[in-house]
């Protein structure tokens, strides 16, 4: 049973609420202490709501986190005994305060390499086809989960991810010498670079949003005033004008510029 009346607690406030199957997120843009007080009041209302419906709030899994580039952001103690964290894994993605993804990428690369180590021990004598299938099924999904959110622009992060696939190619061919070039053998295996696959995934996701296959709030505008020509498109998305890298390289601005 899903109870959607919880959305009432954010009415007439700047606080936003996002609902998932068994948890939710409260968030707000904080400019002044008044915004902090309002967010805290909404959280108190949420606790009252959960108590009314006899659904105890798990405070051990309830945290607060601030996303900012400021060296000294506004401090506030939200709720009673709520833990404040500097990074948090939510829905499989590790978030950092500055919305950079180095930590998340390091974690998923480490996880993928552990899985690769397991495959090396288990499939040592398997065929190339079997090893390739194992890589595509067990390792590559780890490197691509929710990539539309965290797709990197830094060369070091891109290289880190590609390095895992190169090690997987060495495993597939059982070649670990310096004369072996994983990039050339990737073509034989029909393995596109992870960067190329992330680009295709971003474009595909934007296509689904524009054509309302995925229903989300769309913080961009459509310009249908352009005359139809061979080079024009009936749907034109107005480019963003980002000032911060964390916004410039986020999903929508980054994908629109492709």
Automatic annotation (TrEMBL):
Protein name: Putative tick transposon
Domain of life (superkingdom): Eukaryota
PANTHER family found in the cross-reference section: REVERSE TRANSCRIPTASE DOMAIN-CONTAINING PROTEIN
Domain Reverse transcriptase, first and last residues per copy: 1-95
Cross-referenced Pfam families: RVT_1
């Amino acid at each position: 049973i899903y109870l959607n009346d919880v959305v009432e607690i954010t009415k007439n406030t700047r606080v936003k609420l996002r609902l998932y199957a068994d948890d939710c997120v409260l968030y707000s843009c904080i400019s002044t202490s008044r915004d902090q007080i309002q967010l805290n009041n909404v959280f108190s209302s949420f606790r009252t709501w959960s108590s009314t419906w006899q659904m105890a709030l798990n405070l051990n899994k309830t945290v607060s986190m601030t996303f900012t580039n400021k060296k000294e952001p506004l401090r506030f103690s939200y709720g009673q005994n709520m833990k404040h964290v500097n990074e948090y894994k939510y829905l499989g993605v590790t978030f950092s305060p500055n919305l950079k993804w180095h930590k998340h990428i390091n974690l998923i690369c480490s996880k993928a390499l552990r899985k690769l180590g397991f495959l090396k021990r288990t499939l040592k004598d398997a065929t190339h086809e079997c090893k390739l299938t194992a890589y595509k099924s067990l390792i590559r999904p780890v490197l691509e989960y929710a990539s539309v959110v965290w797709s990197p622009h830094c060369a070091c992060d891109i290289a880190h991810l590609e390095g895992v696939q190169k090690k997987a190619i060495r495993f597939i061919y059982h070649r670990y010498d310096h004369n072996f070039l994983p990039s050339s053998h990737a073509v034989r295996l029909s393995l596109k670079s992870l960067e190329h696959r992330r680009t295709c995934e971003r474009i595909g996701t934007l296509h689904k949003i524009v054509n309302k296959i995925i229903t989300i709030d769309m913080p961009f505008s459509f310009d249908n005033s352009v005359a139809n020509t061979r080079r024009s498109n009936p749907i034109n998305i107005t480019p963003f004008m980002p000032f911060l890298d964390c916004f410039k390289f986020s999903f929508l601005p980054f994908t629109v510029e492709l």
